[in-house]
Amino acid sequence: MTELDGRDWGGPPRMNASEALMWRAEGDLRTRSSGLLLELLDAAPDWDRFLAAHDRATRAIPRLRDRVVEPLLPVVPPTWVEDTRFDLSYHVQRVRLPEPGTPRQLLDYAGQLASRPLDPNRPPWEAALVEGLAGGGAAYLLRLHHAMSDGLGIVQLLAMAHSQTATPGGTRLPSSDLAGAVGAAEPSPTPLSLVADGLREELTGGPARAIGAAGSALGVLGRVLRDPAGSAERAVNYGLSLRRMLSPPAAERSPLLRGGGFGYRLVLHDVALAELKAAGKAAEGSVNDAFLAGVLGAFRRYHEHLGQPVDQLPMAIPISLRDAGDPMGGNKFTGARFVAPMGETDPRTRIQLIREFILTVRAEPAIGFLGLISPVLSKLPGAVLTEITANLTKVSDVQASNIPGLGHPVYLAGAKVLRMYPIGPRPGVAAMLTMVSYDGVCCIGVNVDPESVTDIELFETCLRDGFDEVLELGR
Fold this sequence. Notes:
41% of the residues lie in helices and 20% in strands. Strands 4-5-6-1-12-11 form a 6-stranded mixed beta sheet, sandwiched between helices. The radius of gyration is 23 Å and the shape is globular. By secondary structure, it is α+β, with helices and mostly antiparallel strands. The two termini are 37 Å apart. The chain has helices spanning 17-24, 47-60, 88-91, 103-115, 151-161, 175-181, 191-226, 228-246, 273-282, 287-305, 347-362, 369-377, 382-393, 456-471, and strands spanning 35-41, 66-69, 79-82, 92-96, 125-131, 138-144, 265-272, 313-320, 333-340, 398-406, 411-412, 415-423, 431-438, 441-448.
């Protein structure tokens, strides 16, 4: 583990609007947002040392010992409070695969684990050491609710929760601070007290916010009076931008990707980071552009093999809004949906089309639209919130995300981490593909709906071939 201080990881006690939205929509499979990290280890670590590493991590990163308390009414957001009954043995498990311990057995177990809901009355995470893999290796599975952090925040967590050497050690708080962190806990707030506190904040903070809003309004009014034509044009441009961001992609959903099942079927794929970077550069794009081009190439080949070629694919991607000064953990991202050029056979042209879209969407005035609608949506009754959220996500067939990861090898309780695969949820889509770079390798985790992607072996071949055609650009 590194010497980073994890006491601030996770942000303030009260969830922001987008986190509250994800938390309150968790009850439905269509809107579940729990993610999974799958690490391949060179050997099974000593169990006592493995438990001790998790105990140190949960003390050094207090958010891992926090549970969520919901107010009686959704007028205030859910709040993180210390779980005074925290039980490490509940969150950290040890399992052994039956012989022969194949990769497919591991992935099937991981898919079952990822599809189960987390206990809302406990800190929303769990981990498992999986032993019995063929060849003597082992695997580490870590599940986290998206309300705890986005992808970049999870990478920060991993940097703290792993060691850069195989020797014993770990992230430690100073002894005085650690004693305070594990000492007598404050009484946990009740749902009723959360509502009272929230209303009190509204009342006591109202005058200050009103003064601030008035000042902002006067500033806007001043700009309007100085430049009425320019202000009107900006307002119109923002409105048009918001319409573009909220409108579903102008493409029909694929006939092959409409299964609508709730099962998880996992696939893993590796790509050398240097090769993917060279491929993107050869087409005047980025690593992310080359990644998306490989994804589209894979789905194009899959459709063609099954005799259902499709030119355009409705696709969704997250876009990080983090700044250098943002706190560790938590969530700060938005989403974008676009008509992906799946039918384009030239990978160079495909990368350029993707690049053009990414640059365009980042320049949208309304790129932070989730911050506008989340406060309203998060306060709706649960059933209404779930239906609205499900309708927002079901217009896409595929979702893909790329997260910059760790550039050096790390260890977990003495075992070397060989690969690090992110497995994202499937909020209304047939497939979620997530990539994290680790020690020079782009580790791609794929979560597909088995009722949509029915021939998993064919899909694995198409995934490999789709990325190979992109990598050829840089060779």
